[in-house]
Amino acid sequence: MKIFIDSADPQKIGRLAASGLVDGVTTNPTLMLKAGLRQKDAITRICRMIRGPVSVEGVGETAEQMVKDGQEFASWAKNVVVKIPMGQEGLKAVRALNRKGIKTNVTLVFSVNQALLAAKAGATFVSPFVGRLDDIGENGMKLVEEIMQVYRNYGFRTQVIVASVRSEAHVAQAAKAGAHIATVPPEILEKMFLHPLTEKGIAKFKEDWDAAKKGQK
Ligand code: E4P
């Protein structure tokens, strides 16, 4: 499973990219607000560090505006993917951007039918939001499993990005469900490296190493 970083903060992305484990990035207007940078500046900086897909989202309401914005975003770097909100106008824009050879990520997906339509429209990626479904008492990961099943049934090539990740458990569940990608907030990716028994084990080995050295002549 590929791991994307869900952030628009070039510094945080740069730190994590050094691990060599970051396959792409997703941003949205909220993450852009948190980063406090101009969208074009943040995206061009991120695209210099990350070779994989970098999703960029606008706020256009018509297909025409989404296509116009999408073309602009795609001119910033060759790995830009245009994030398009689910809906009739959105999927019209996906088809038009597809014809121009521009990759798309259909976002704000909360049902199997939305994912089915996005795949039929030719979306490169689709982003089911698991955390926001869990927030309203539904089972976000069940939706991912169902989308994967439908995509397998029909051989769709659209890749599933598990989005709105709230915990390390979500990432593990995404991998078990066979999702292509999970997009993970930096703080959660950092926690994925850790386990209390790993830290405890390292401390014990160090202690025994030092004791052994003392005992040697
Ligand atoms: C990524 O593509 C999404 O925009 C993001 O994961 C949404 O996360 P949130 O539900 O925590 O805002």
Radius of gyration: 20 Å
Shape type: globular
Helix content: 40-55%
CATH class: Alpha Beta
Q: How many helix segments?
A: 11
CATH architecture: Alpha-Beta Barrel
Mean pLDDT: 97
> What is CATH's topology name?
TIM Barrel
Largest sheet: 8 strands, parallel, barrel
Spatial ordering of strands, largest sheet: 1-2-3-4-5-6-7-8
CATH superfamily: Aldolase class I
Sum this structure up briefly:
By secondary structure, the protein is α/β, with parallel strands linked by helices. It is about 55% helix and about 15% strand. Helix 6 (about 110-120) packs parallel to helix 8.
Blueprint of the fold:
Elements (H helix, E strand, L loop, with lengths): L1 E5 L3 H8 L6 E3 L2 H7 L3 H11 L4 E4 L5 H12 L5 E6 L2 H12 L4 E6 L2 H9 L4 E4 L1 H6 L4 H15 L4 E4 L5 H9 L4 E4 L1 H7 L3 H20 L2
Parallel strand pairs: 1-2, 1-8, 2-3, 3-4, 4-5, 5-6, 6-7, 7-8
Bound molecules: erythose-4-phosphate (E4P).
Erythose-4-phosphate binds next to helix 7.
Please describe what this structure looks like.
By secondary structure, this protein is of the alpha/beta class. The protein has one domain (2-215): TIM Barrel, CATH 3.20.20. Helix content is 53%, strand content 17%. Strands 1-2-3-4-5-6-7-8 form an eight-stranded parallel barrel, surrounded by seven helices. Helix 1 (10-17) packs parallel to helix 3 (39-49), helix 4 (63-74) packs across helix 5 (88-99) and helix 6 runs parallel beside helix 8. Bound molecules: erythose-4-phosphate. The site of erythose-4-phosphate (E4P) has 12 residues, from helix 7.
